[in-house]
């Protein structure tokens, strides 16, 4: 392992500050052991480049599988939606045909009812015209009878006055 500081320089520094050579070497040895232990802990948590590549390949493989599944699912969903859309179109066409048939039937019924009402109105007008003609004839007959009676009374008055 590489150490990122000069151990001999540290021993010399400790000796200059009052430590003996043996004490300085023990302190530096303890520091090296602590650093090695810390590096071991750090290295345990770290992954190597090879492990990282393997993990990346596994993830990419998994993503590829998910993509395939999604494409298959998308195609099946699209097919299902298309078939559902076709069913709805057919139902809509059937409903449209039924509505058109109903509209045609209602129109025919309305025309028939309208023609019946027209014929009833014409018949009613014809009856009223006949009744009016009969009334006019009765009036004419009554007027003629009254004229005849008036002439007859007139004649009787002339006979009476002449007599």
UniProtKB/TrEMBL annotation:
Keyword Mitochondrion attributed: yes
InterPro entries reported in the protein's UniProt record: CCDC90-like
Positions of transmembrane segments: none
Gene Ontology biological process terms, A to Z: calcium import into the mitochondrion; positive regulation of mitochondrial calcium ion concentration
Gene Ontology CC terms: mitochondrial inner membrane
Superkingdom assignment: Eukaryota
Signal sequence interval, chain numbering: none
Record's keyword terms, sorted: Coiled coil, Membrane, Mitochondrion, Transmembrane, Transmembrane helix
UniProt key word Kinase: no
Localization per Swiss-Prot or TrEMBL: Mitochondrion membrane
Family classification: Belongs to the CCDC90 family.
Listed name of the protein: MCUR1 regulator
């Amino acid at each position: 392992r590489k150490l990122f500081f000069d151990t001999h320089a540290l021993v010399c520094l400790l000796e200059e500050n009052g430590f003996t050579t043996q004490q300085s070497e023990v302190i530096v040895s303890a520091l090296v052991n602590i650093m090695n232990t810390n590096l071991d802990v750090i290295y345990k948590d770290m992954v190597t480049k090879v492990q990282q590549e393997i993990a990346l390949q596994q993830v990419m493989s998994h993503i590829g599988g998910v993509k395939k599944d999604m494409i298959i699912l998308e195609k099946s969903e699209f097919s299902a939606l298309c078939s559902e859309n076709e069913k709805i179109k057919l139902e809509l066409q059937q409903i449209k045909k039924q509505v058109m048939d109903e509209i045609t039937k209602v129109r025919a019924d309305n025309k028939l009812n309208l023609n019946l009402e027209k014929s009833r109105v014409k018949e009613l007008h014809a009856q009223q015209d006949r009744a009016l003609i009969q009334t006019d004839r009765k009036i004419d007959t009554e007027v003629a009878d009254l004229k005849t009676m008036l002439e007859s009374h007139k004649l009787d008055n002339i006979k009476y006055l002449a007599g």
